[in-house]
Amino acid sequence: MTGAANGLGRAIAEGLLAAGAQVVAVDVAEPTHFAGRAAVLVVVGDVSDPALADRAVGAGVERFGRVDILVNDAAEYPDGGLVDMPLEAWKRVWEVNVTGCFLLSRAFVRHRLATPPTDGVIVNISSGSARSPRPGGGAYAASKAAIESLSRTHAMELGPHRIRVNVVAPGYIDVRGWSDAHPDRASPALRRRLVAGIPLGEAGRPNHIADAVCFLCSPKAQHISGAVLDVDGGSLAGRFRLSPG
Length: 245
Ligand SMILES: NC(=O)c1ccc[n+]([C@@H]2O[C@H](COP(=O)([O-])OP(=O)(O)OC[C@H]3O[C@@H](n4cnc5c(N)ncnc54)[C@H](O)[C@@H]3O)[C@@H](O)[C@H]2O)c1
Fold this sequence. Notes:
- Helix 3 (87-113) links the parallel strand 3 and strand 4.
- Helices cover 39% and strands 13% of the residues.
- It has a single domain (7-242), classed as NAD(P)-binding Rossmann-like Domain (Rossmann fold, 3-Layer(aba) Sandwich).
- The chain has helices at residues 7-18, 50-64, 87-113, 138-158, 188-196, 206-217; strands spanning 23-27, 40-44, 69-72, 120-125, 163-170, 228-231.
- The strands form two sheets. The chain has a four-stranded parallel β-sheet, sandwiched between helices.
- Helix 3 (87-113) runs parallel beside helix 4.
- It is α/β, with parallel strands linked by helices.
- Bound molecules: nicotinamide-adenine-dinucleotide (NAD).
């Protein structure tokens, strides 16, 4: 899985490990959190590097025999409105969030197709902003919308091979305690504003995302493919901010 060093990726990796999986933890930052754990293979690299995907899948096969699940979590999310967004920043979001997902998915599926029985699971991490963007976050939101579209296409292409492809779309998740890279990303004022838009009245926790991913990877989700599962406390249900009072 990618993006495993910090935040939701770290929590998803812990969830998969707790469910009995062995994990290839891919990240551009060294995932030091998993040091010394035999069930975790660390692969350091940039998901936008075309050579990384084959290296990661190959290392997983060499260490664990096969790779059954792919979770694409790594993402960059720089702010930038239309007028101010530098081209290089725009391209970088696309290369990491979309091309990275494409490259890892392609390497994973090529491996699965060469290793009968050709089943498998892909879970791509999107965002509520794919369908409810905000000003100044256009590149990120568009990249996540692309992930959701790509996932549906891949679900259709890969269904005949018994490879399921689904999306988990987090709302605002408080990653404090789960990230060395961004230990306290939102200011208290921003956090209050974000929580005010959540019908369930609190920020999501990383284990909420891990639980959703583990469900989609499990046999209990064996007839679910091409789905987008919002894990957002109801944020996308409607215009909650206009509720009376
Ligand atoms: N935290 C939230 O509230 C939230 C909300 C919606 C969606 N998401 C999505 O969840 C995922 C994880 O978000 P997070 O909050 O944990 O972010 P994060 O920044 O804490 O973690 C992202 C991880 O991805 C890694 N990464 C970044 N670029 C990489 C690259 N090029 N190659 C390899 N690894 C790379 C980072 O090093 C980091 O470990 C992302 O896809 C994000 O868009 C998060």
